[in-house]
Amino acid sequence: MTALTLRLPGLSAQRAAGLGHRLAIVGVTLLGLLALTFFIGRVMPLDPVLSIVGSDADQSTYQQVYHQLGLDRPLYVQFGYYLRDLLHGDLGRSLMTGNSVTADIARVFPATIELATLAILFGTCVGVPLGVFAATRRGRAGDQVVRVISLCGYSVPVFWFGMMGLIIFYAWLGWAGGAGRVDLAYDGLVEKRTGLLLIDSAIAGEWEVFASAIKYITLPACILGLHSMAYIARMTRSFMLTQLSQEYIITARVKGLSEREVIWNHAFRNILVQLLTIVALAYGGLLEGAVLIETVFAWPGFGSYLTSSLLLGDMNAVMGCVLLIGIIFVTLNLVTDALYQVFDPRTR
């Protein structure tokens, strides 16, 4: 019997096998995540039937809805039906909104993407220079200041920063917007194309809406980015200290290169690969961990939707959110691995 091997152009057998192995791991990981969430959700004390019919409904109505939701079937059968629907692109219907979970997530997720993207930009643009600054001044006053800032940003609860930010910058100084994404006078004025209010308002040429959106998003994005900034600064400092102690740095200085060239062209270039992983994972954490900030600022995003679904026992919505979170982290890891090969030829 002749064995037939299907290969993609430019893809060696070894790389094809590695890609297949990686995709298999991704599939098993997502399936395990779904199964764990599903079975935990079914044993939680929250009753999704009561969320629909209310506590005053009679027993016959309760039993009818219980049967319609399929809760009278064994757990493995319920999970099998869920996977069957999932393979057809159906995440089910939300008990909270009455809409499909896919439509709900598509509606709320862009607001979180916008918030988290600005937060990670703030965290990276501030955290990386702070980390490099601290590493080049190890043990001195500048290093100690950066370490204290990082410790505070990493350990102080983000909701406390949020409340203090509202008190100081909104209630007292009036520099920032309050709750929501935009002033009520501009709400609904811009047509939703991407769901990203800043982009949609710029495309529509509604610069007053754009300015209002900037005013409302700046404070929550900066506060949300504080945690990432602290983490990125600490890791950057650690990576840079390792590189600055290497022999090639001493050689570069002996050759007469300026300190700027030594730090940024040599030491910093060698930590880019590690920083990519740190920033990617921090971004994923912001996308799924913005619950507290979205609650404090009444931000209509993914975190608020997930929290409300959990409180109501809306497991279809919870499962859809968990699946999206898993896909986000898996995708970010795959993208990071691909960028590794771009920035570090040794991994090719």
Automatic annotation (TrEMBL):
Which Pfam families does the record cross-reference, listed alphabetically? BPD_transp_1, BPD_transp_1_N
Q: Where is this chain's protein located in or outside the cell? A: Cell membrane
Q: Which domain of life is it from?
A: Bacteria
Topology of this chain in the membrane = Multi-pass membrane protein
Tell me the InterPro entries matching this sequence: BPD_transp_1_N, MetI-like, MetI-like_sf
Keyword Transmembrane helix part of the UniProt annotation: yes
Residue ranges crossing the lipid bilayer per the database entry: 21-41, 115-136, 148-173, 213-233, 275-297, 317-340
Which SUPFAM superfamilies does this entry report, sorted A to Z?
MetI-like (SSF161098)
Q: Which UniProt keywords apply?
A: Cell membrane, Membrane, Transmembrane, Transmembrane helix, Transport
Q: Which residues form the ABC transmembrane type-1 domain?
A: 109-340
CDD domains linked: TM_PBP2
Question: According to its UniProt record, which protein family does this protein belong to?
Answer: Belongs to the binding-protein-dependent transport system permease family.
Name this protein carries in UniProt: ABC transporter permease
